[in-house]
Automatic annotation (TrEMBL):
Residues 218-289 form the Cation efflux protein cytoplasmic domain. This is Cation diffusion facilitator family transporter. It comes from Archangium gephyra. Residues 18-209 form the Cation efflux protein transmembrane domain. It is found in: Membrane. InterPro entries: Cation_efflux, Cation_efflux_CTD, Cation_efflux_CTD_sf, Cation_efflux_TM, Cation_efflux_TMD_sf, CDF_Transporter. Signal peptide: none annotated. GO terms for cellular component: plasma membrane. The chain crosses the membrane at residues 16-36, 80-99, 119-138, 159-179, 185-202. NCBIfam families: CDF (TIGR01297). GO terms for molecular function: cadmium ion transmembrane transporter activity; ferrous iron transmembrane transporter activity; zinc efflux antiporter activity. Gene3D superfamilies: Cation efflux protein transmembrane domain, Cation efflux protein, cytoplasmic domain. GO terms for biological process: intracellular zinc ion homeostasis. It is a multi-pass membrane protein.
Length: 302
């Protein structure tokens, strides 16, 4: 991906985040207001969850403004990892939401709180459910299209809102049927859903930030060995994020090759790998002379 394409891609990611931010905060306000009016811990907790979704979008917008900057002397590989840092921040914000959800659930279970379920509350919750479904679908599709870990992470986060809202609707039905404790019990169930989402997001972000291998080394070696003139390939390493992968490896070639010929061979390896893996933006090929049979025999006798 060239610099202009990267800039355009980041602009589109920011646009999606801005739209999702408005939707999340509109949903959050509706849930919190009606949760407070009805004395429902589950609905209020769901609203807090949606509000933190919006906070995550703000964090993402700030991160993308940094991630979109081109490479410079201090960041020769670009600023893409700031996007992964934002994803990690989303996971941390979900953790904060979990603490609040736990507090509200215990408060509902240990104290005599009786939520008031009204038809208007049900309408609001169904409406926010439809908004969350639309947001999740749009964000996931755009995340896949733009290969953005930030959008994909936020889409998974928003998807948790769908499950949460469904659970809250269920608790409202139980409260209406005469089981007020269902409000606190469902809120505890929300914690489990949120915890799973947080773990997935944090795991992905940590993988990027800790330079987890992005490509199968054996597959890279096999492709490299298909290039005429390459006698062996080893020490394959890859890192980066979806859409921006860096690879370095070592190859052995005929020791009689000139420097220019060895360079052409390295270029051929780079072209072969980038043709197979479009997400690869840079390949560093370290060329070494292959040992002659006589040299190998001498080494084996030592």
């Amino acid at each position: 991906m060239d610099a202009s394409s990267q800039i355009e891609r980041n602009r589109k990611v920011r646009t999606v985040l801005a739209i999702i931010l408005l939707a999340n905060w509109a949903v959050a306000v509706a849930k919190i207001v009606f949760g407070w009016m009805s004395n429902s811990a589950a609905v209020t907790a769901d609203g807090v969850h949606s509000f933190i979704d919006g906070g995550s979008n703000v964090l993402g917008l700030v991160a993308m403004s940094v991630a979109s900057r081109p490479a410079d002397d201090d960041h020769p590989y670009g600023h893409g990892k700031f996007e992964a840092l934002a994803s990690l921040g989303i996971g941390m914000m979900i953790g904060i939401a979990m603490l609040e959800l736990g507090r509200m659930a215990l408060d509902s279970l240990l104290h005599d709180r009786h939520p008031v379920v009204t038809p208007m509350m049900a309408v609001v919750m169904v409406g926010t459910l439809l908004v969350n479904l639309a947001v999740t679908t749009i964000e996931r599709r755009q995340g896949e299209k733009l290969q953005s870990p930030l959008l994909l992470a936020d889409a998974r986060h928003t998807l948790s809102d769908v499950g949460v809202t469904l659970a809250v609707l269920g608790s409202m039905g139980l409260v209406w049927l005469g089981f007020p404790k269902a409000d606190g019990i469902v809120t505890l169930g929300v914690l489990v859903v949120v915890a799973r989402v947080a773990w997935g997001i944090v795991k992905q972000a940590v993988g990027i930030l800790s330079d987890t291998a992005r490509l199968d080394p054996q597959k890279v070696m096999n492709l490299t060995l298909q290039v005429p003139g390459v006698r062996s390939c080893r020490d394959v390493r890859s890192r980066g994020m979806e859409g921006t992968v860096y690879v370095d490896l070592k190859i052995e070639v005929d020791p009689q090759l000139t420097t220019a010929q060895a360079h052409e061979l390295a270029d051929a390896v780079e072209a072969r790998l980038q043709a197979e893996f479009p997400e690869v933006v840079d390949v560093v090929v370290h060329v070494e002379p292959a040992l002659l049979p006589s040299s190998r025999a001498q080494l084996s006798t030592r």
